[in-house]
Design goal:
The protein is of the alpha/beta class and 426 residues long. It is built from 14 helices and 19 strands. The chain is globular, with a radius of gyration of 21 Å. Helix 4 (172-184) runs parallel beside helix 5 and helix 6 (232-239) packs parallel to helix 7. The protein has helices spanning 2-16, 108-124, 138-146, 172-184, 208-220, 232-239, 253-262, 272-279, 281-284, 292-312, 336-345, 349-355, 358-363, 420-425; strands at 33-41, 47-49, 52-56, 59-64, 73-82, 84-89, 94-95, 101-103, 127-132, 154-157, 162-163, 189-193, 224-229, 244-247, 265-267, 319-320, 381-384, 398-403, 406-410. Strand 13 (224-229), helix 6 (232-239) and strand 14 form a beta-alpha-beta unit. 35% of the residues lie in helices and 21% in strands. It starts with a helix and ends with a helix.
Length: 426
Amino acid sequence: MRPFKAVLCVLAFGLSSLAPRISAEEAWPTHQIVIATDTVLDGKGKSLKNVRIAIEGSKIVAVNANVDGPVDYDLRGVTVLPGWIDAHVHITWIFGKDGKNAGTEGIGPDAAYQAASNAWRTLMAGFTTVQSVGAASDIPLRDAIAKGFIPGPRILTAVAPLEGQGEKTGTPDEIRAFIRKQKAAGADLIKVFASKSIRQGGGMTLSQEQLNAACDEARKQGLRTLVHAYREAVRAATLAGCTEVEHGTLATDDDLKLMAQKGTYLDPQAGLVIENYLQNKDKFLGTSGYTAEGFEAMEKILPMEHELIQHAMRIPGLKVVFGTDAVAGAHGRNAEEFIDRVRDCGVDPMTAMVSANSLGAEALGMADRIGSIAPGLEADIIALDGDPLKDITAVRRVVFVMKGGVVYKNIARDAIPFNSRARRTN
């Protein structure tokens, strides 16, 4: 942790020194920024036509056809929508010097540079907020981005997860102490492993009493809980009052109905994570947790993932959010998950967009800050070359990225001027 943090601090210092430092008061233009559009997906399921978006500082202040002033960014001819939210990534997961999977345990300059690259790729792909679920190395990356030292998405992290190991995990009181320790370490949320990997059958690794303690203590500490759960662990996490179930494969329809009743969010994966493992099999095989048998299991699991999403979409009131479980090899390709959901699972394209916008923000407890294009929210705005409602592959063609009023990518119009802050970060 210390070598990684030290190198990342040096990296942040080096990148920030390439341009003159500016004060917070100088971070954004003093004038109102205006974006012209002809098609906006507002993040809540509505399509707006021919509106202008006005931005002051980091916030949207108006969205209507009557915004006055010159146009700073002309995004007519492309589809505008809120920056996407990925509810499940491992942003510091890398391949090591030998090209093999190093997980989140890499140290030294290579690990820090790759983590910064992962963040940059993710932002360029249109994801302005991610939930990294968790590693201690997430913290210096999260903080460096928040301070403006390096570019990347807004990061929420679980720091160290609660690893389910049956009785070895600890008593309920010991689990509560672990949750408090994570909060003190700077966790934004708590990640709980209540099942084995699906590659190992997905059996339950925590008792109901242990899960109850973890999720109850997190709630008392003002933290959300994300639970890695398969099979019977899905129902157990729901009964424990946990916030969100990750994966959920082999959950029954009754389990899903209970989740809908309790307001528990579901974050399934439609394909990217398994596709990435299979594409990079030589890099993962033989490293911790990745066996030939595990890869054989993954090939059989993919249809089960599709079936889960198909069933989930038929459950009234079930809140299905967007998460990729992006690990090494998948960062920057997060949007492929949209294509899997729409193409392979039959998810309505607008529903897919909302899952990564307003619904994703609601699951993060941040609906009052991000997830929609509306006055008072952060100016997290992206644009696609194409209409994802007609052609879901448009999600691959991100041509504009603004996060918190700062433009990081703009290839939609060659002649559009950049403000001073944007010049620093491009």
